From TrEMBL:
InterPro entries xref list: CHD_C2
Pfam families: CHDCT2
Species whose genome carries this gene: Galbula dea
Gene symbol of the encoding locus: Chd3
Ranges of residues in domain CHD C-terminal: 54-180
Protein name: CHD3 protein
Coiled-coil region: none
């Protein structure tokens, strides 16, 4: 078995108690009602695989964006960007700095991204309140029937999308089914 070098005695006879740097953790428990976790997963995968953790927007940037809003105020994008403590949110845009509409593009992105995070935070708070009040779903409620119908329509739309892709790829049986 291999030994952990952090636990091995050093030359002075003392153990090296330095722990690994903890992994950054920031989460919003939105119950899967928004696309935020899918975005985070895809962005983090791209950032890690490319080695560009600061250059590709992901969960860490959302954290600093929220921290900037807490400190500087709602929609104070310029103040947040100019504060050196929040410099990490400027990193993904460095390659675009030469474009004429750079600041407008950057501010629109920040506003859009904040809206996504804000929506997830609102849902998280609603779920927290529902849990606190011990609220549960009534399976006989008409909204649950609507939810089932929506799931059926979503499944149908995904199937149609798959058939369309297959048809475009030259799959003759898919083309025949699509045109019936």
């Amino acid at each position: 078995a291999e030994k952990d070098p952090k636990l091995e005695p050093r030359a002075n006879g003392r153990r090296d108690d330095r722990a690994e740097k903890p992994r950054f953790m920031f989460n919003i428990a939105d119950g899967g009602f928004t696309e935020l976790h899918t975005l985070w997963q895809n962005e983090e995968r791209a950032a890690i695989s490319s080695g560009k953790l600061n250059e590709i927007w992901h969960r860490r940037h959302d954290y600093w964006l929220l921290a900037g809003i807490v400190l500087h105020g709602y929609a104070r994008w310029t103040d947040i960007q100019n504060d050196g403590a929040f410099g990490v949110i400027n990193e993904p845009f460095k390659g675009e700095a030469s474009k004429g509409n750079f600041l407008e593009m950057k501010n629109k992105f920040l506003a859009r991204r904040f809206k996504e995070v804000e929506q997830a935070l609102v849902i998280e708070e609603q779920l927290r309140r529902a849990a606190y009040l011990n609220m549960t779903q009534d399976p006989s409620h008409p909204a649950m029937a609507l939810n089932t119908r929506f799931a059926e329509v979503e499944c149908l739309a995904e199937s149609h999308q798959h058939l369309s892709k297959e048809s475009l790829a030259g799959n003759k049986p898919a083309n025949a089914v699509l045109h019936k």
